[in-house]
Structures are given as C-alpha cells and as structure tokens.
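Listing S7. Sequence submitted for prediction.
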Amino acid sequence: EQSPVDRAGSADPEGANEHGRSCLEPECPVGNVSWTEALAFANMLSERHDPPLEPCYELTDCTGEIGRDFSCKQQSQRGDSVYECKGYRLPTKAEWEYAARAGARTAFYNGDIAPQAGLGVCGPDPLLEQIAWYCYNSGGTTHPVGGKLPNGFGLFDVLGNAAEWTTGKATEPIRPAEAVDYEPTLPEQLLRPARGGWAYAMNATMSLARWHNGRPDDRAPGFGFRLVRTVE
C-alpha cells in the first residue's frame, strides 16, 4: 500500500501544473503535498514507529483521498505545547530557521545575496547557485536532492528545490474581496507558512528570513516538508 506521501507525490502523473514541474525520479523531493497531508503523514509515521509514538495532531471532519482532494475542517496540535509531543511533526518556523541557518547570519547559509534590482528579479547569483535550485538554474522543475552544497549542519536542499511546510500562522486570515466586516471562523481560512523557497522562486524570496504563504489544502510541485521530533 502506498503511504500518503507517496500518493501525494504522484497525484499529478505529468509532474506539472500551472506552478511548475516536479521531477519524478526516486531521488527527487516529493511535491504536490498540502499542509494538511503533511500533518496526516506525520501522524501515520508516529503510529508506525517501533514502539508507536503518540500522534501530534488532531485531524477531524476529513474528506477526500490523500494526494488528490484530501481536506480536513479542523487541524490542531495535541497538548498545550508542540514541543511536548514526542511523535513526528512539522517544525515551527523558528525551528526551521535555526536548522537552516546552521549558525549563519547572512541571507543564505553560505553568504549574502547579490545586489538585485527588486523582488521580482530572476537572475544569476554565484552563492545561491552553489546551494539551491531556484528560478535561474532550475529550468522550472525540481531536481534530485543532494545536488547542491549542504549547510553547516549537513542538511541539503534547505533553500530552493521544494519549499517546506512549517507550523504556525503565516499571516492574517484570507479576507474575501467582497467582505467588509469579515470574521474568520474556520481553520482552513488561515494561511500556513512554507520556508526555504522553491525551484521557481525569485532571488530575493530565497532568503533564509523569508517565508511563503499557502492555504492548508494548497498543492504545487514546489510544496513539500521535512519532519522533526522533540528528543530528551
């Protein structure tokens, strides 16, 4: 039986949609994974651990099939603090940035960004090209992992290739254009943060300090995840 992440990664047989393309080799990062599916996979991995670990998330009122139209009206963490859970989970935004920087204080973990004309620039950057697949060198598709230089902690593809879902609210709730006095009521109306940029991101958006926003059920070739655990 395919795992949820396998099905999510292969949901698009062509490996492409309007946002870009996914490479489909075994060494490629899994894309087309929604934030909700990442939570479901973390729970499944916790349950399959030997010995089993307590899942970190409560997913209720779920419909559809993982990898295609999976959606849950309620997604929440178990316990008062995410750090109390010993199962697999998404990193917080702060945890992700700590791991990604590996002590660096520059825009990239190997140095500063080259001067650019603006946020919408896609162009050469000698340092960025050493560590990441992004709009200038990716050809609009993800690539097998480990092809660029790792950071100081030995982590590959922290920037570029596939963005990584994290936990926490990315920004204010989505506000319908026609609404005047709009009060959000459902968790799916909140955006979620994805860190690290992706294979078709512009230069300036690849900074370690930046994040991208997505709805919990959004899927694109450049959306993936990297799980963590709290250890004693």
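Caption to Listing S7: primary sequence and predicted structure tokens for the chain studied. Residues 46 and 53 are 5 Å apart (CA to CA). The longest strand covers residues 57-63.
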